[in-house]
Amino acid sequence: MSVLAIEGLRKSYKGHLSITHREVIRGLDLVIESGEVFGLLGQNGAGKTTTIKMILSLIFPDAGTIRIFGEPSTSVEVRARVGFLPENPFFYEYLTGHEFLDFYGRLFGFPRAERERRSKAMLERVGMTERAGMPLRKYSKGMLQRIGMAQALINDPEFVILDEPMSGLDPIGRREFRDIILDLKARGKTVFFSSHILSDAEAICDRVGILKDGRIATCGRLADLLTPSVKSWEVTFSGPAFAALQLNGFGGKLLSARGEESLVQVTDEGDLARLIDSIRAQKGRLIAVSGHRDTLEDLYLREVAR
Amino acid sequence: MKVLAIALNTFREAIRDRILYLLLVFAVLLIGASRVLSMLTVGSEEKIVKDIGLAAISLFGTATAVFVGVGLVFKEIEKRTIYTLVSKPIVRSQFILGKYLGLVIVLAVNVSVMTAFLYGLLLVKGWADASMAGAVFLTFVELLLVTAIAILFSSFSTPILSSLFTVTVYVIGHLSWGLQMLAERAEGALGRGLCHALYWVLPNLERLNVRGMVVHGTPVPAEQLLLGAVYGVSYTVIVLALAMMLFRKRDFL
């Protein structure tokens, strides 16, 4: 059974005085299987947060169905098995980190000892044990994101939904969040997250979906979506001018030229060999040759531009 | 358990919010002022202390109910704290009930402190009597209803509009008798109908006001207290149910 199944989802927002309305989601279909890490990608305003809010019944779709573990997403029982971290989370700033987690523990109906145990473990997991007694109003953005992750995981959820979890984190924080997500996957949990930071998505996702015009434009395993072979090469060299080299007849493209140094891109293996021969023949110095594979960024840019 | 968790969190928020302490200080100051005022008049000192004291309890209680009440739900949506709350295994009516109960606890503490202060004042003078408790009790029932009304409006409107609506209902509720009189004197059928409709829909808050009787030493029958309580609580339940209904399908943008 799939963890999440969305069919024909539609949502529009009303404008001023309810006269105009803008359709944000236009027939979205999506299935997420158990144990996978799924990345929902899309530009700002593409409808990523709207989709997530509908999954969690924070807003209601105009049409379509959402099922979590086979149950309607509006079911209260289902939400006991789900964890959620919203984008740029705002929390009760008058609570301390410990009180905050205790409060969420109560919403799951955990008895006191259980809440204590879980809060302590969560604080440790997100590296906030030492700040547990501090009110949230004194937390930095990164610290709020961490305590937010702790509340999302307090019920040891089977399905974790994270809206832009990496935004506002420094490089160390991002690495730690990545590790937490990979650890969730290792423990058999299903993770659904939205992001526009493609390098993070590429590092941790099994599958991605690109949201465009209110629908999933492309969806699949990264390995299937990205061609594994080298697509082009970038050659850095100094000495002879690019124009002089081109006389030898290869189809390269000058990407940049700074002083003596040039950066050229070629897409054909034969061209690469001819370029290197030319540089050597004209007593130039070869500085670097790097192969360029298809990245998620390439795929994303292609899809968004289409 | 879940409702209680939300209620206690709401209570904690109010307690850590300095505005509430300020209200309490004002109430204490006002009750103190009634003593000063009574010194300036001859004879009816006891009535003045009781009158101003009871009015202060009602006024500050109502101010808390309205101005904290209208922000309860709105703040959760505005600050987006509701996202993590409603996505937990709770139903929305539990959220409304929790927020409501939280403020009721705040009001209970608030009214208790003010009443204790007033009783202390009267005790020193030797004017303390049990009938005061009846007036405070019905004032508290009125606060239960006013809080529910504030929450009802705030479940679909902004705090400014909600406070305006709530205060309007409060004022009309105390002038309910006037509506019936107005209906009799109104010329058009539409005006008469409107006055009658308002009279039947809006609560008659004067049924919960026995402060005048207590101040003048008129005994308040137990049935009147009981009927008042039943009236106020029934109205509260209906208003809360309406708030829950409106909140059930609301989008949190």
List keywords for this structure.
heterodimer, A: 306 residues, Alpha-Beta Plaits, 2 domains, 14 strands, 34% helix, 31% strand, elongated, B: 253 residues, mainly alpha, 11 helices, globular
List the helices and strands and how they pair.
The complex is a heterodimer of chains A (306) and B (253).
Chain A: E1 4-14, E2 21-32, E3 37-41, H1 48-55, E4 63-68, E5 71-72, H2 76-79, E6 82-85, H3 97-107, H4 112-125, H5 141-153, E7 159-163, H6 171-186, E8 190-195, H7 198-204, E9 207-212, E10 215-221, H8 222-225, E11 230-238, H9 242-246, E12 252-258, E13 261-266, H10 269-281, E14 285-293, H11 296-305
Parallel strand pairs in A: 3-8, 3-9, 6-7, 7-8
Antiparallel strand pairs in A: 1-2, 1-4, 4-5, 9-10, 11-13, 11-14, 12-13
Helix pairs in contact in A: 3-4, 4-5
Chain B: H1 2-16, H2 18-40, H3 45-78, H4 81-86, H5 92-125, H6 131-154, H7 159-174, H8 176-185, H9 189-201, H10 211-215, H11 222-248
Helix pairs in contact in B: 1-5, 2-3, 2-5, 3-5, 3-6, 3-7, 5-6, 5-11, 6-7, 6-11, 8-9
Explain what you see.
- The complex is a heterodimer of chains A (306) and B (253).
- Chain A has 306 residues and is of the alpha/beta class.
- Chain A has 11 helices and 14 strands.
- In chain A, a hairpin with a 6-residue loop joins strand 1 and strand 2 (21-32).
- In chain A, helix 3 (97-107) packs across helix 4 and helix 4 (112-125) crosses helix 5.
- The longest helix of chain A is centred in the middle third of the chain and has 16 residues, at 171-186.
- The model of chain A has no long low-confidence stretch (mean pLDDT 88).
- The mean pLDDT of chain B is 88.
- Chain B has one domain (2-248).
- In chain B, 82% of the residues lie in helices and 0% in strands.
- Chain B is mainly α.
- The chains are: A alpha/beta (306), B mainly alpha (253).
- The interface between A and B is medium-sized, with 31 and 27 residues.
